[in-house]
Write a structure and sequence with these properties.
4-stranded parallel β-sheet, alpha/beta, two-stranded antiparallel ribbon, 15% strand, 200 residues, binds zinc ion
């Protein structure tokens, strides 16, 4: 049927979101109408705020300060010689939630199914190398490759280990405690925490 215009418009926006199909998008659109005006205002102002987010110039995690660096990169109590490289912002959130990691990060961005690095990812990696050269005297203590234990996660970790050879005293891999094919994002705090502790 021809959906009412506002329903169709919002559903078109929602259906592109991760995990949201066209039917679900329409269901959500009607649900929002049912929530009433205040809830819709709240949602649109929250979405509006997203425009103020920008990527940290060092780890590329989005933040909203006027500063170029995020809270983690600015925090002097975080060990700058230990750097975890991960795929997604949500992986960083999961690792932070374990409260078992006190190093810094580099968010690489979504890895393509071929496992090859995209141009912007090569730039991020280069900026990490520059940072290690300039700020850490050429060598980090440890670089943790925190990728999902899937075949393309393995592939990217192997190629990054080669790429970063010589930039850290130790290059370790997270994921050994995680179920094969599992995802960091969905691991519970305890499983992920022990994968972190037993990295190697
Ligand atoms: Zn940062």
């Amino acid at each position: 049927m021809n959906l009412p215009d506002p329903i169709r418009r919002i559903a078109d926006q929602l259906k592109g979101l991760p995990g949201i199909g066209p039917r679900q998008a329409i269901r959500l659109a009607f649900y929002l109408v049912g929530q009433g005006r205040n809830a819709i205002d709240e949602l649109s102002s929250a979405a509006e705020d997203l425009k103020r987010m920008k990527a940290c110039s060092r780890c590329f995690f989005p933040h909203q300060d006027k500063n170029n660096l995020c809270d983690i990169c600015l925090n002097p109590r975080r060990d700058k010689y230990t750097i975890a490289i991960l795929e997604k912002e949500t992986d960083l959130v999961s690792i932070e939630n374990t409260k078992k990691y006190n190093g810094r990060y580099l968010v690489l961005g979504p890895i393509s199914k071929t496992g090859a690095l995209l141009d912007f990812q090569k730039l991020r990696l280069q900026s990490l190398k520059n940072y290690i050269q300039k700020e850490l005297g050429g060598k980090a203590e440890e670089i943790i490759l925190a990728f999902n234990p899937t075949s393309y996660g393995d592939f990217i970790a192997a190629s990054l280990a080669k790429e970063l050879d010589g930039f850290a005293k130790k290059i370790s891999r997270l994921g050994r405690g995680l179920p094969t094919g599992g995802e960091i994002e969905f691991a519970d705090d305890e499983t992920l925490g022990s994968a972190l502790e037993r990295r190697g």
